[in-house]
Automatic annotation (TrEMBL):
The chain crosses the membrane at residues 6-28, 48-64, 70-91, 98-120. Coiled coil: none annotated. It comes from the Bacteria. The lineage of its organism: Bacteria, Bacillati, Actinomycetota, Actinomycetes, Pseudonocardiales. InterPro entries: DUF1761. The keyword Transmembrane applies. This is DUF1761 domain-containing protein. Keywords: Membrane, Transmembrane, Transmembrane helix. It comes from Amycolatopsis camponoti. Pfam families: DUF1761.
Length: 121
């Protein structure tokens, strides 16, 4: 199960990088982090670590349930990142557009993870 997890993590990082490249102008308008030119190497490593943790958790959940992987992806997305991002809008005054941008990234990332891991089932 190590190879599918690593492939899913790499795929998710790549898809996320593409997401923020496509929506970079919007991200730069809404966030100082988005206005930065390029992430530093340590941030890129940390992002890979975060994504690897997501993939491991998703793989464990997928193995423990009979849910279809895409259904599980939507459930995980709605139950965790969307709730956290909604809280940031509600309590920290994060702009709705910024939270929506991040929510879209999370959805695409989790769907990619589900498709890669589901392909190895």
């Amino acid at each position: 199960m190590v190879v599918p997890v690593l492939v899913a993590a790499v795929a998710a990082v790549v898809v996320s990088a593409v997401w923020y490249t496509v929506f970079g102008r919007v991200w730069a308008e809404l966030s100082a982090a988005g206005a930065a030119a390029r992430p530093s190497p340590w941030r890129m490593g940390a992002e890979f670590g975060r994504t690897l943790a997501l993939v491991v958790v998703f793989a464990v959940l997928a193995a423990a349930t009979s849910w279809p992987v895409l259904g599980l992806a939507v459930l995980v997305w709605a139950g965790f990142p969307v709730i956290i991002l909604a809280g940031s809008v509600l309590h920290e005054r994060v702009p709705v557009r910024l939270a929506a941008l991040h929510a879209g990234d999370w959805l695409v990332k989790i769907v990619v993870v589900a498709l890669v891991l589901g392909g190895w089932r």
